[in-house]
Amino acid sequence: MKHTISELEDIASQVRRDCLRMVHAVQSGHPGASLGCADFFTALYFEVLNHNPKFTMAGAGEDLFFLSNGHISPVWYSVLARSGYFDVSELATFRKLDSRLQGHPTTHEGLPGVRIASGSLGQGLSVAIGAALAKKIDGDKSLVYALMGDGELQEGQNWEALMFAPFHKVDNLIASVDYNGQQIDGPTEKVLSLENLQAKFEAFGWHVITSDGNDMGEITKALHYAISLTGKGKPILNLMSTQMGYGVDFMVGTHKWHGAAPSDAQLEVALGQLKETAGDY
Amino acid sequence: MKKYTYTEKKDTRSGFGAGLHEAGKRNENVVALCADLVGSLKMDAFIKDFPERFVQVGIAEANMMGIAAGLTINGKIPFTGTFANFSTGRVYDQIRQSIAYSGKNVKICASHAGLTLGEDGATHQILEDIGLMKMLPGMVVINPCDYNQTKAATLAIMDYEGPVYLRFGRPVIPVFTPEDQKFEIGKAWMVNEGTDVTIIATGHMVWRAIEAGEKLAELGIDAEIINIHTIKPLDEEAILKSVKKTGCVVTCEEHNKYGGLGESVARLLTTEYLAPQEFVAVNDSFGESATPDQLMTKYKLDPADIVAAAQKVMKRKK
Questions:
Q1: Are A253 and A187 in contact, with CB atoms under 8 Å apart?
Q2: Ranges for the Transketolase N-terminal domain (chain A) (predicted)?
Q3: Domain tally for chain B?
Q4: Which residues of B are identified as catalytic?
Q5: Which residue range forms the structural domain that includes residue B298?
Q6: pLDDT tens, B289-313?
Q7: Which of residues 199-218 of B touch A (CB under 8 A)?
Q8: Does the complex come out with an ipTM higher than 0.95?
């Protein structure tokens, strides 16, 4: 372990503060799943990934991460800045004119850490598979990670990709699903039910593990376990339960904060529940 | 009229297959992907010699475009292969976000474009692909005219850094350009110098423009014929130079008149040098089942249609 669980939890608290302050400042963006995935991103970037913040697009010899549900850009931007890809002060430019921190992540403005544009849903897993195949062709033993939302699994391209990866034995790939059960129009089970996701992934040939994405100890352990499963002929799917809005009592567990910004008063209450551990940007 | 002859007829898709095979030999970063149309895209030679650099994706074009985008990240040069319809309209958002906006070095190689796909009918005969692809910022759009030019274009796009749409077709047509030609992206190819009317053609229509030029010569009309194999970026200098000389232009393409080469030329002329123009193109219609020749006649893409358009546009010259 590079950090203790308690240290990682402190980082995640600061990341949540960043997410809320970024979205509040421009009164737009997606705080719900950003908060829900703060623990996962912190564990990934501060503990799990073998990565180099002196970013190169090729990323030869290092682990690569692809975000498919690009609307949770606030949490990714915060973690990239906090782990050294760019200065944390740049977080203040989120969604503003001429910023590298676009509403949805892009390579177009040259932000270090981002290797593909995402936002139009359902495309990230395919891209991650391509990057994983390239590593195999090159004999590069490092790994490729992807994160998808659960709602975006309603997009058909995901199932093309889910069918492809096991058949082609893309076993250097760890895909996580943010299984929060919420999407813009309501709970997934009311909008278009995902039914038994674990059984579906297993039927497609993935090695499926489950985890609690809001328990720092458990998500860290789960990701290390996933690494131990690589190279054995199957891609790995981490079905990660989270709660949208986790960390702020009035935001947790509802789709209402999927794409809504807090008011001044709401921000103050929310920040009161999240320790400032590394200094606000 | 300069004399053009040919000794054989070949399909442009075979030019792509030969070019891809050669590209694989020249550059180990070249990888190929196909969505269950290996035979139609003539990819067999590449697959035989470079099996470790070929990805069979199955009937899943959206996934293919995403995988291609991912393959570029450490410097691979992916060539995707499927029909033009499934290379563009079916996967437009995947191309837009994961390839064009992301600036990925993917070569989207599309066979069976246009009406000359023939009997399969309108579901497979895309006539909107040039328009779709040229609207994407940064996308290069190429539609070569015969086997040799398609092979040369395939090698040229390997050396170009950035997303490219390469359009070619199914039928056998005359091979009339040199085997050893140098293909320059964005550089028009002067087929015949003339003074009375400029005929600008792309893809399969270039040979038809030559046949039209011969008929026009018999009628005493001296046509300048230009092969625009690269629709984007357009060789504006070559087109303006020609139209300033002849004073009128006919554009020829196996594509809807909306959104194609003709509209690119019209945009150029309205902003730089006003001149009358006629469009030899499909008149906002889907295709249908028939032989390629029957379809080219019915949808008014024959040499006779180019001749009529040239005569008409010349009357409108100031």
A1: no
A2: 11-267
A3: 2
A4: 61
A5: 189-315
A6: 999 999 999 999 999 999 999 999 9
A7: none
A8: yes
